[in-house]
Design brief:
Oligomer: single chain
Largest sheet: 7 strands, mixed
Number of helices: 0
């Protein structure tokens, strides 16, 4: 069993930067693909980014390409989402997840989830 805890969400002005952290415990974090999802009020939970753990590859939603960078430090059981050039439409609760064996963009393919951290981008 893997427990995930997100942190780093806060209010930030448009154009600013923010780094989210996903701390894992209770399992072997490096055995899992890590993903970030976000959910705005009254919206579906959408894929943001994912990173593999062996030969490292990263994947991004079109809406965040060029602005967000996903990374992980397996030795520290920690994942990160570096967000730059933030826009008001980035406002959401951000969740980290572990799994994504078949479809890394689908929330239903991830086994473990954090409880989310709120990111609010003001215009």
């Amino acid at each position: 069993q893997v427990q995930l805890v997100e942190s780093g969400g806060r209010l930030v002005q448009a154009g600013g930067s923010l780094r989210l952290t996903c701390a894992a415990s209770g399992g072997t974090f490096s055995s899992y693909q890590m993903g970030w999802f976000r959910q705005a009020p009254w919206k579906e939970r959408d894929f943001v980014a994912a990173i593999t753990w062996r030969i490292v590859s990263t994947y991004y939603a079109d809406s965040v390409k060029g602005r967000f960078t996903i990374s992980r430090d397996n030795a520290k059981n920690t994942g990160y989402l570096q967000m730059s050039s933030l826009k008001p439409e980035d406002t959401a609760v951000y969740y980290c997840a572990a799994g994504g064996l078949l479809d890394r963009t689908s929330q239903w393919e991830y086994e473990y989830w954090g409880q989310g951290t709120q990111v609010t981008v003001s215009s």
